Amino acid sequence: MKIEFSPGDIFVTATVLDEGARFPTGHGRIRQYDSDWAIKEEYDTGAYGLISSLCIDNGGTLHALDPQARRVDHAGAANMAALPNKPFGSMIALDDGTYLMGEHMVGQIPGFEGEGKVWQANADGELLRSWNTETNGGMGGFLGVTHMALSPDKSTLYHLSETGAHIYAHDLSVDKRLGAIYTRTDPPPMVFGLACLADGDIIFATGAGARRIGPDGAPRLDYALPSGRGWSVIILREGGKSFWALDFFGGQVAEVTVDEGTVLQSRDLGLPKALAGIAEVPKGMEKTK
Question: Which structural domain, as residue segments, surrounds residue 170?
Fold first, then answer.
């Protein structure tokens, strides 16, 4: 892909879905907005599956991860050409120029095979190491590391299998599972996308809203989001004062303040069952292709 963007631009996943498919599946597409939510462009990845997340790294490369297609597309300097055929669905860009990438699938169900591990890769796509992360399969039994976030000191990885009940912690330095730091028991007992704050607290999506907990799992705050049952992605905005929340089923996005839970803005993007990822170009990042 060749993409030109400016600071403040927003990218979202916009897969063109097949009608009647058992699972949301279709032709990969990314939609680009300016900072006022005016559509600037749409880009086809050429993959067939479902784009599950987007990531803009420190060098200005946009990454689109499609675990069904077992493919990662890039627009920018990093091309990761050596990346192996694995169902990567989430990515964290590290300060040293490498990436953490989570396998979205686990098990041997045909079409959804995976190990459910987290891998570290360089900008050429070479895998440097892996971590044997804990998974539970979610409701479907095949979901691995669908969402992940790093602790402020970068030593602990928080991760989950969406539609499962647990948020896990993993010590990256010694590849040690630390178990579930949080288990949701109120209905529905499911957890979805998460983000880690500078003070160590965690915000995760609950389907109908979002919740903030401490690193020990202690409850802090419940966030009321606009009406919807698919709130499943949480992405911190630059500066950490607010976050984006995505409603996968409804195709809507909301911006919410971290401390008060105030909904600053919300809008329907018209992308039901396709809105699974969002990435915002940081201030000061030069135009990139």
Answer: 10-280
